Fold this protein.
Amino acid sequence: MKGRERQTARIPVAAGLVLLMIAGACAAGHLREKSRGTVIYFGMNAGSYWDVPTGSCYEVIDTAIRRFEEKHPGVSVEYTSGILKEDYPEWLAEQILLGREPDVFMIPSGELDILASLGVLKDLEPLMKKDVEFDRGDYYPAAWRYGNIRDTQYALPYESVPTLMFVNKTLLDKEGIDMPGEDWTWEDFLAICRQVTKDTDGDGVVDQFGCFDYGWKEAVTSNGVQLFEKDGTASYFGDFRVESAVRFVKELNGVNEGYVVTAREFDQGKVAFRPFAFSEYRTYKPYPWRIKKYSDFEWDCVKLPAGPDGTGQSGLDTLLMGIGSRSSQEKLAWEFIKELCYEKETQLHLLVASQGMPVLRDAVESPLLKQVLGNDIPGNGNMDVDVIRQVMEEAGETPNFRRYSSVMNQADGEISAIINGERSIDSGLLKLQREINSLLRQ
């Protein structure tokens, strides 16, 4: 494993506040002493980026580094090992503040906009235009666009995780219900939830349920809604498709007759459906992790049900890589970030050694995907690889403008109040749109 340990003082403030101090530092010159040859410094966190158990978080990266170094004699790639995901944003902020940021680095979730605005990230457009072998069309659209801010590409996607619908096959079989097909709809979803929600032991209390953790965000995405302008200047919570999604979730919740379903019921096999990140499927579907998590029932995943104006799109979380704007090794940094994010061999390795999905079509469409997803103990069924490809191709774009997290938290509170009957749907959504737009214009 390549690694270099640094003794750096921790700055006792939140990473977000530290980043606000970076603007002045970014104007300074940048020099590094290099003890041997040419060194490319890489920034990454240890463990799974997707918060699931992992074997070796360095396997894919180390293999890519070896290939890169073989292609570039006299060049070495080094990184600091052991930085936990929750500590990584602060670590990166410290390195930037000290003028020691990596040449290439993972971009913490939600921080692309601020890093780009402060001049920390290199604009990749000139590098892409000069590289005749690079084609942005090789990426899945939503994964590619996530690295774009104000029509400028500041990062390349490395790995993505779509949201899928977890299905308790044992429960559906018991009720005589077939697994949903890829063209299932909200109406199908609601009908199944109504059919399975019941008192199974005759004590007068409902103890079997249709779904857990399906909310307005999943409904809005699967109904084909884009909630914001890409640059974050306007929102569309008053769209009729948002209203349709909120009404649907309100009706779906009503099936439980006021009972709030929890993860405990789901883990006990008493719930038919739950939206899940694909990383959970990759982790807990194969033996032996299956027996540690969901051993009492058979399960699989399908795409989300489609709303009347959508195709069953799901959200897509994407891990991005960027190049530091002060890197003195621009050409080598570009070649290395391509080794991680554009080299098919690296992307195929993700299928074997990671919990996410490659972002290159060629990798996802390779025979290896079927082999990997079929690597399971007999008798439990396997996901249709065409579903995965369709989900990746159709995935909804996740906004990444600076205020996205804060305005979505506000929207979540207001829409939850609407679903709970504390606000009217029509006026509540229009009022929310006005409030969010006002915040976005500030």
Notes: Residues 1-35, 376-381 have pLDDT under 50 and may be disordered. The domain at 15-158+317-373 is CATH 3.40.190.10 (D-Maltodextrin-Binding Protein; domain 2). The two ends are 47 Å apart (CA to CA). Residues 46 and 84 are 5 Å apart (CA to CA).
